[in-house]
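Every protein is a chain of amino acids, and every chain bends into a shape of its own. The protein below has been through that process, and both of its lines are reproduced in full.
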Amino acid sequence: MRIDAIILRELQMPLVRPFETSFGVTRNRRILLAEIQSEGLTGWGECTASERPFFSAEWTDSAWAAIVQELGPALAAESPAQGGECQRIFRQVRGNRMAKATLENAIWDIEAQREGLSLSKLIGGVRETIPCGVSLGIQSSIPELLEIIERELSAGYQRIKLKCKPGWDVEVLDRVRNRWPGISLSCDANSAYKLRDADHLVQFDAFDLLMIEQPLWHDDFYYHSMLQKRLETPICLDESIRNRRDTLAAIEMESCKIINIKLGRVGGFSEAIAVHNAAQERGIPVWCGGMLETGIGRSHNIALSSLEDFTLPGDVSASARYWADDIIEPEVVVSSAGEIAIPDTPGRGYEVRTDLIERLTVRKETIRALELVG
């Protein structure tokens, strides 16, 4: 496919309510979107990097620079036949996986439109609906958290995930589990603990958790393996899993029993599919994590979650939980059964509200193939 233009935009969008993790509080999101125009078709990608380099080494401004200076020109100079070729095109640039995913996922979107397939079908999806859970940030009080959980369960969500950190963990989990003995419950530490906290983390076994997500260092397998030997609760790795090789290493070392796949963290659909396949072949279930995406990134997550080994409810939830006005239509909605229907129209399956995107845009840059000639 000929790349006619790559348009990179930064949007600023306030969240409906603040979202707190062990990294801090997010109230507004700086969203990077890539619009790729190719032979009359348009594909969209979203960068999931955060405003500051806390979750990963990438952040909004580093991703912008990587796309404008390196990845965008490299892609514009090529004519990729499919999304899977982006890894070859970007191979000279190390890291910057979230920036790479921004462009690669847009190419997959175009490929699906060109083939007349939904993005889900193009990547090998087998589901018509996906089960949904919610990720709840740290709240100002336990009673406030309980009210939020009540609301989300009433909305039908099939799994509740609580952000945790030292000082906001055992008492919280105890109160929640006593209130709702039968719900699917998990927690996410975002690397807030150390191995010296193992005795403390063993207490989590009392709460019948689906998993504890990334309790130790963001780049670690070894100490997670040591911790998993002490815990009955399954460890789920998130930040540590960057690619298929990491997946194989973590499974071989018995560092986890579950894997969270995030499109941006692993560099896009090509590597996400490879991670999924490696986990499935070894009997490790996976699920799709969220990064406070708009509907564009959320639609990519929906397609990814249609793959066979995504057997656990992910963090893909309704647009209205995060945005007063999402940039797609229709907005993502969750049924009373806690499911999202997977679109069957070509591409991502959701229209982009270009008028709203233009109003929200605070920075814009266009990369054209013609500018690279000579």
In short: The first helix runs from residue 60 to 76. Confidence is low (pLDDT under 50) at residues 370-374. The two ends are 21 Å apart (CA to CA). The chain has 13 helices and 15 strands.
